[in-house]
Amino acid sequence: MSYSKCPVPKEQQPTNEYLELSNSIVFSLPKSNKKYILVLISIWVIFFLLFLIISSGSVYYSENNFKYILISFFSSLSAPLLISIRLLLGWNHIYKRLISEKVEYEESGWYDGQIWIKPIQLKEKESLIASIEVKPILKNISQITAINFSLILLGILFFQNTNI
């Protein structure tokens, strides 16, 4: 944003926030769908092994190995779900700031919220960034989050309705 009359501090300008987020190690993962899925699967495997160790101390599951493995499988899905939700919230915040007609900002950082209305050229540029760059990322994260959440719900329903 190189507009001379822009009162918004550089770090609070939506385009700069987008660049900062897309250059971050964690938030840049969803830009590549395959890399994002591989990272989530590796996190899930680590938590699955951790949950296997934790649930191995349970007297209730010591007699039923199948239920012991399934409870670890479904409960370990919570870690990738939380990571996906955090990524979804961060990218959604940037998307809303990019498509907004106004920019809310703080000059001194002490809750002195100001509003600046974007010029038409800047609004068009940021809307283009939002639709071409950010929207596909949001779609990928949403799909993976929905699949993960569905698996967790399936596990909850399975354990509610079975007497294994």
Q: Portion of residues in helices?
A: 55-70%
Integer tally of domains = 1
Structural class: mainly alpha
**Rg estimate, integer Å:** 22 Å
Measured by DSSP, the beta-strand proportion falls in 5-15%
Cα(first) to Cα(last) distance is 61 Å
Low-confidence stretches: none
Number of strands: 2
Which word captures the global form? elongated
> Main sheet?
2 strands, antiparallel
Average residue pLDDT: 88
Spatial sequence of strands, sheet with the most strands:
1-2
In sequence order, what are the helices and strands, one letter per element?
HHHHEEH
Helix run count:
5
What would you note in describing this structure?
- The chain is mostly helical.
- The chain has one domain (33-159).
- Helices cover 66% and strands 6% of the residues.
- The protein contains five helices and two strands; from the N terminus they run ααααββα.
- A two-stranded antiparallel sheet has the order 1-2.
- Strand 1 (102-106) and strand 2 form a beta hairpin.
- Helix 1 runs antiparallel to helix 4, helix 2 (33-55) crosses helix 3 and helix 3 packs antiparallel against helix 5.
- It starts with 13 loop residues before the first helix and ends with a helix.
